[in-house]
Amino acid sequence: MKIVIADDEPLVRVSLNSMIQEMETSWEIVGEAAQGEEMLELLAQHQPEVAIVDIRMPKLDGLEAIRRGKAVSPRTRWIILSGFSDFQYAQQALRLGVDEYLLKPVVPDELEKALHSVSIQNREYAYLLNCQFENRLISLIHGLTSPAAEPEDSLLRTGHFQAFVFSFDSPRDARGLEALKCAFIDDLRRSVPHYLVHGLHLAVFTLTGNEYVAAAVWRPERREARQSARSFFHRAEETAIQYRSGELAVTAVLSGECDRCDRFLEHLREIQDCAGFHIVFGMNRTWTFERVRGLAEQDERLKLGRLLLQLASDYRNRLYLNYQHTLEEIRNHLAGQPGLVLTEEMRRHIRDYAKLALDVSLPDGDWGAWIRRLNEWGEQWLRQHADAAEPQDLVDQMLRYIDRHYMKNIGLNQIAGELNVTPSYLSALFHKKTGTTFIKYLTRLRILKAKELLLGTNLQIRQIAEQVGYHSTRYFTRLFVDMVGEYPSDFRKKTRGEEHVGP
């Protein structure tokens, strides 16, 4: 946490500096000022988390310096120092949003207590802002909003972007795999607050059902923000390494650093288009975007990887007929590509994947032997599960689940786990039957419920947002405007007014 000290008395500055240095914390004093104008320059330069300000300074007193400083560094928290126990000063300070008010001479224990209190408040505030930003980024990626709707100085329009894309493979059924993924993602999400600094936002979210994204967006002029993003990515990679085991393979792709949101979205799409590449070229490791983009030229090998990925999905979802159809596609693909060459390393990667995702050991030999073994495995599996019918009416079950739980923090992965199918399969099935994506359907339902509450109750906008599943009123309002074309309050006034118009 960065701190600026502003006091016209050198001995006070030295004393405060000494007290803070002796505290067992990672706090850093980035500048000292003898008067208010110097403090404003330090605020603009360092954007500190905390400013300790004397209420009486020459030229520009502490209260006026804070008024101006809040515009220069809006996320800074304030601790006022005063040699006067004058209640009038305390009142003015509180009206300005000062967090702590300490009397001189400052007692070390009181100063440390105040710094701890401000530090906690600052982290909570930063995390709240980050959650709001994450919601906006998710909406943008899923096509619910556009960068053009953002203010010109929004990080979504001016920031630099980069992300890890994680995919998961496991021998467990859909519910078991979802439990492993949730544990991994929860660990990653818990680390987010530790890396938040001024000028940086972090987000962890799902792309399809099988892929998760850990993204960082930062202001390019903030070197500390970029460094903190690097540290977060290092933590994300370490978390992936910790979870890699015989029960879970975690393959990661680090996108390129993008200076525009549209380029970032294009990187994510290119990574998605290469789904299944890791089956042929190596799973359970970290890849760079440049390397994956180079593999995209090997189209026939990539198609083989996608078919094997689909085969494992059919197996996990207990879709025997689909399994046989996909196996036939693999056979036809290989027959139509007599010149397709797989190195011994690629063959080993495919055998490793088959063992992990299908629980089947492929023999040494040509592709014919592999196809026969996969066919035998499918028939054996069918005999073992002959009494288990393939999933029926999954979309109907999903729609009922959404209708009951739309006001909660639900996701496609969670619902797929409840139904014991893979998220990617459920996502495709849902889109085929409804013609839309899960995110768009859920958003439309929530906005529809919000419109009902706007017309049928006198609840405040904040209360309505919470009742339909949004804990940020600003985010709810943004979505409502994008989908309805007007603010919730205007919709309520206009519609109620029209209902009561008489002859």
TrEMBL record:
Pfam families: HTH_18, Response_reg. The modification 4-aspartylphosphate is found at residue 54. Keywords: DNA-binding, Phosphoprotein, Transcription, Transcription regulation. Coiled coil: none annotated. Signal peptide: none annotated. It comes from the Bacteria. The keyword Transcription applies. Residues 2-119 form the Response regulatory domain. Residues 396-494 form the HTH araC/xylS-type domain. PANTHER family: ARAC-FAMILY TRANSCRIPTIONAL REGULATOR (PTHR43280), HTH-TYPE TRANSCRIPTIONAL ACTIVATOR RHAS (PTHR43280:SF28). This is DNA-binding response regulator. It comes from Thermobacillus xylanilyticus. The lineage of its organism: Bacteria, Bacillati, Bacillota, Bacilli, Bacillales.
